[in-house]
Amino acid sequence: MIDEYGVIPAVERIVMKRQESVGFTALAAMGLKDFAFEAVILRHPAHFTLEAVARSRKRLAEDANG
To answer: Domain range for residue 42?
Structure first.
């Protein structure tokens, strides 16, 4: 996907999916959510769309509550 779209668009496509990615689920289970794409987007929001930032924030909040 990175070769086809580039890094930033590929990351956005992953976090914009309705379902959590397998990587997010695995990282969350290991207590390593800081390494998830969602966390990277929130650390560098100026490089991503507002929608990707909002989805990332929501997913991380839902995971923290659930």
So the answer is: 2-65
